[in-house]
Amino acid sequence: MKITGGKGVNVASFLADAGLRVVVTGIGMVVATPLGLGAAIYLSEYAKPRVRRIVKPILEILAAIPTVVYGYFALLFVTPLLQQFIPGLAGFNALGPGIVMGIMILPLVSSLSEDAMSAVPQALREGAYGVGGTKRHVVTRVVMPAALSGIVAAIILGLGRAIGETMIVALAAGNLPDLTWNPFAQIQTMTAYIVQAVQGEAPRGRLLQSFGADGNAVLFGTASFWEGVDVKGDALRLVVIEKLPFASPEDPLVRARIEHLQTVGGNAFRDYQLPEAALALKQGVGRLIRSERDFGVVAICDPRLTSRGYGKVLLGALPPMSRTREPAQAVQFLRRRRAPLAVEAGA
Predict the structure, then answer these.
(1) Domain boundaries in the chain?
(2) Mean pLDDT score of the chain, rounded to an integer?
(3) What is the Cα–Cα distance from 141 to 125, expressed in whole angstroms?
(4) Regarding the domain delimited by 222-346, which CATH topology (the fold level of the hierarchy) does it fall under?
């Protein structure tokens, strides 16, 4: 379910969360960059071929681990371990997820950097050795400068992977939108904020409270919103029902009831599906009128209501109300009814 309103997204909160995202990403890059480059240098210049064939696939396997596993690893192992060395470290914090994020992007940095170093011509190395260069000098002054473009690309790709990561920070960093640069405190990152803002993840009561207080909001609800929604007053003036609420025949309970009625010779649609849809439609329409002073428009967008014979049964289940197929008449009705309220409020 999702709620959007005329006020839009809280820009200040979004920018704060973007800044907090830098904290986690920065920690991850501090972990991944030196370790990744160190692993790449070792595999490219120091490791024996047999060791390289074993170690490199093991590193790359880390990239195949689901991020939800990394998230639980940060929450259940890394954070408790850090709490033994850092007194006062919160259960949700930026440090643990940052370290685990660095471990997650380590294979990306190391593998691409190692490929770039391995692509450096052997002649350059032999020339450096020929003028008396040591192994360290060859690596730092010949191989790494020659492979610099590939190393930078690997770091940038790792940075992009870290910025877009959601599951690790959602599980282990917390959900407290507090602007702080303290890596030991609970935070809410940008990706976690986007998920919350776009999908409207909140309890039904909070969604309804925000909907009523906004005054210019649109609330999209699933089947769970057919019951228990009580919005009185001017906040709710239009209820839109996209399609008639027939239960899906793929539902195991519905399928079992249909098969039972068919077994005993009954008509499953007439005796079960149609009455259930009529009751559900009546409940949906009932979301509009919650007090004696309430009024509004119910828009049913399913053409089957008028094109199918059972539409009369569904209409007969609804409370008495005027009907129209002209949107202009509905708009005129709302304007006419709202005018006395505006005069009364002004008085």
Answers:
(1) 9-198, 222-346
(2) 80
(3) 10
(4) Rossmann fold (3.40.50)
Grouping H, G, I as helix, E, B as strand and the rest as coil, residue 3 is strand
Question: What homologous superfamily does CATH list for 9-198?
Answer: MetI-like (1.10.3720.10)
Q: What is the pLDDT of residues 100-146, one digit of tens each?
A: 999 999 999 999 999 999 899 989 888 988 888 888 889 989 999 99
For residues 8-37, give the mean pLDDT. Answer: 70
By CB neighbour count within 10 A (0-12 exposed, 13-18 middle, 19+ buried), where does 336 fall? exposed
Distances (CA, A) of 175 to 77, 92, 93, 163, 164: 19, 9, 10, 17, 17
d(CA 195, CA 87): 31
Measured distance CA(141)–CA(156) in Å, rounded: 22
Shared fold status for 9-198 and 222-346: no
**Percent helix, strand and coil across the chain, each to the nearest 5:** 65, 5, 30
Cα separation, 158 vs 167, whole angstroms: 16
Percent of the chain with pLDDT over 70: 79
Q: How many CA atoms lie within 13 A of 101 on its CB side?
A: 32
Average pLDDT over residues 236-260: 85
Residues 6+ apart with CB under 8 A from 28: 98, 99, 101, 102, 104, 105, 162
pLDDT digits (tens, 9 = 90+) for 312-343: 888 888 888 888 888 888 888 888 876 554 44
CA distance 28 to 50: 30
Rounded to two decimals, what is the model's pTM? 0.53
Measured distance CA(326)–CA(328) in Å, rounded? 5
**Cβ(90)–Cβ(175) below 8 Å:** no
